[in-house]
Amino acid sequence: xxxxxxxxxxxxxxxxxxxxxxxxxxxxxxxxxxxxxxxxxxxxxxxxxxxxxxxxxxxxxxxxxxxxxxxxxxxxxxxxxxxxxxxxxxxxxxxxxxxxxxxxxxxxxxxxxxxxxxxxxxxxxxxxxxxxxxxxxxxxxxxxxxxxxxxxxxxxxxxxxxxxxxxxxxxxxxxxxxxxxxxxxxxxxxxxxxxxxxxxxxxxxxxxxxxxxxxxxxxxxxxxxxxxxxxxxxxxxxxxxxxxxxxxxx
Length: 250
Ligand code: ZN
Description:
Largest sheet: 6 strands, parallel
Bound molecules: zinc ion
Strand content: 15-25%
Structural class: alpha/beta
CATH topology of the largest domain: Rossmann fold
CATH superfamily of the largest domain: TPP-binding domain
Order of helices and strands: HEHHHHHHEHEEEHEHEEEH
Low-confidence stretches: none
CATH class of the largest domain: Alpha Beta
Number of strands: 9
Mean pLDDT: 90
CATH architecture of the largest domain: 3-Layer(aba) Sandwich
Radius of gyration: 19 Å
Shape: elongated
Number of domains: 2
Number of helices: 11
C-alpha cells in the first residue's frame, strides 16, 4: 500500500490556483466549530438529549407518529437558529462566487453552507432548507418551517397533510447521488472536509474523483492512500485561514 502523503496550506493553495473545478465534500467536522455538535459524537443531541436516531429518523416511525421527530427538530432548529457558518463555510462560498468551486456536496442537514452563501449545494442526506406536505406536495421554505415548528407540535399543511422536511430518513433513498457523483467525477480537485468518510454515500464519492483529493479532518479517515491523495490532520478553520491568506497573496 502506498504511503499516506500530507500537504501544507501552501501546497493546498497551489492546487486550488491550478484547478478550475474544485468540489468540496463536507461532513459534521465542518460544523462542529460553529457549535453544532456531531450528532454521533459525545456531545451530540443523540446522546445529550437521549434521542434515539433510529426512532427519530425512521420513516415508518414518522408516518405512524411524527411527534418525536418534531421534538428533536424543535431542539435542533433552536441550536442552528443563532449559529453562524464557520470560516471554512465562508471560504467555500467565496471560492464559488469567484467561479473556482463548482459545488459543495454535504452530509450535513444544518443548511450552514446555504447560510454562508453557497448556491450549488447538494445535500445527500437532505436538509431543512425545504419541506413538503406529505399529502399535496406543497413546498415550504425554511423560515415557514421554523415558524410552524414553534407554533404546533406537528406542522400541518392547510390541506391537513403532515409536513416533512426534505431530510433523508432511514428507509429513504439518499438525495441526488448521481448528481453528486457526476460533479465529483468532473472535478479537478476534491476537498474532503470534516468527514471520516465512514457513512455511505460519502465513502463512495472520493472514489469517483479523477483529480487530486485533499482530505482535511481531525482523526482517521476511511480512504486508502493513493497517488494524488493528501491527508491533513488539522483544525479546518486554522488550515483554511492559512490557505486563504496564501491565495490572496498569490
Ligand atoms: Zn398539503
